[in-house]
């Protein structure tokens, strides 16, 4: 079995891909990318480990359910979006494997058996894996949101890549709610600057890449793009898991007046770059 890449995907706004949105077409390009994710990765994984921006715990926590429900953790959207289904199986054995890897790395963890998969998981993956036939384990962020700790989490997860597991970070490269342009007109200059910095950073050799990601808030447009960094840190996890593998931007989009990108790390990264 070949080593799988790791991938960071933007997950949109709530259930945006499954409702009418104005202006029409706002989410078409991002949705098309997510629908083609298996082709971008170039391998169908045997299982998924997903780190979403929407789950934080005091210790890294693994959803170890055999059949996780969905958590509709958004508000104010059409009624039908609270009836979306994505009955992907869980993977308790994989959850146990994750905890063992974290223990080996000296990283404390917990498991839980009640929380549903949040929209940072089921919304993008309902597009990528519509048949819900790939087992999925969700892994939380850790409160405090230390970028170095999330890089270390990724490094601990790296052996899963040789076991047929796709490590997915689900967030957004710009997430400043006060500066989204609902009309879609124009583009936030800070989002452009930070997105360009991210694309440059993830293409660097590992040591430089990780040093810059630890210090991301000093980047041009960094803190303006992320007043709070929970939507960025899933990128740190997949970058940490990438090890020495190169990274490349594989989606270059503009939505709600902000630059939004996806990044792939691994041997296939540079052959899968998609331009807006």
Automatic annotation (TrEMBL):
<comment type="similarity">
    <text>Belongs to the DODA-type extradiol aromatic ring-opening dioxygenase family.</text>
</comment>
<dbReference type="GO" id="GO:0008270">
    <property type="term" value="F:zinc ion binding"/>
</dbReference>
<dbReference type="InterPro" id="IPR004183">
    <property type="entry name" value="Xdiol_dOase_suB"/>
</dbReference>
<dbReference type="GO" id="GO:0008198">
    <property type="term" value="F:ferrous iron binding"/>
</dbReference>
<keyword id="KW-0862">Zinc</keyword>
<dbReference type="Pfam" id="PF02900">
    <property type="entry name" value="LigB"/>
</dbReference>
<keyword id="KW-0560">Oxidoreductase</keyword>
<feature type="domain" description="Extradiol ring-cleavage dioxygenase class III enzyme subunit B">
    <location>
        <begin position="33"/>
        <end position="250"/>
    </location>
</feature>
<dbReference type="GO" id="GO:0016702">
    <property type="term" value="F:oxidoreductase activity, acting on single donors with incorporation of molecular oxygen, incorporation of two atoms of oxygen"/>
</dbReference>
<keyword id="KW-0479">Metal-binding</keyword>
<dbReference type="InterPro" id="IPR014436">
    <property type="entry name" value="Extradiol_dOase_DODA"/>
</dbReference>
<keyword id="KW-0223">Dioxygenase</keyword>
<protein>
    <submittedName>
        <fullName>Class III extradiol ring-cleavage dioxygenase</fullName>
    </submittedName>
</protein>
């Amino acid at each position: 079995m070949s080593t799988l890449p790791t991938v960071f995907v933007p997950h949109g706004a709530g259930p945006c891909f499954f409702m009418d949105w104005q202006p029409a077409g706002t989410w078409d390009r991002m949705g098309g990318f997510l629908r083609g994710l298996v082709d971008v990765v170039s391998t169908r994984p045997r299982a998924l480990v997903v780190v979403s921006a929407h789950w934080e715990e005091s210790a890294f926590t693994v959803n170890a359910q055999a059949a996780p429900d969905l958590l509709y953790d958004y508000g104010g959207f059409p009624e039908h979006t609270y009836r979306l289904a994505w009955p992907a199986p869980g993977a308790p054995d994989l959850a146990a494997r994750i905890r063992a890897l974290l223990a080996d790395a000296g990283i404390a963890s917990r498991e839980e058996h009640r929380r549903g998969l949040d929209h940072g998981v089921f919304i993008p993956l309902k597009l990528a894996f519509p048949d819900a036939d790939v087992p999925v384990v969700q892994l939380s962020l850790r409160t405090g949101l230390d970028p170095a700790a999330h890089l270390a989490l990724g490094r601990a997860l790296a052996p899963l890549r040789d076991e047929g597991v796709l490590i997915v970070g689900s967030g957004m490269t710009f997430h400043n709610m006060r500066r989204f342009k609902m009309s879609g007109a124009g583009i936030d200059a800070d989002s452009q600057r930070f997105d360009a910095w991210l694309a440059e950073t993830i293409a660097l050799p590992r040591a430089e890449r990780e040093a810059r990601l630890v210090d991301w808030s000093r980047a041009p447009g960094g803190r303006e793009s992320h007043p709070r960094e929970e939507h960025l840190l899933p990128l740190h996890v997949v970058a940490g898991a990438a090890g020495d593998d190169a990274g490349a931007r594989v989606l270059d989009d503009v939505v709600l007046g902000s630059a939004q990108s996806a990044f792939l790390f691994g041997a296939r990264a540079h052959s899968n770059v998609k331009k807006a």
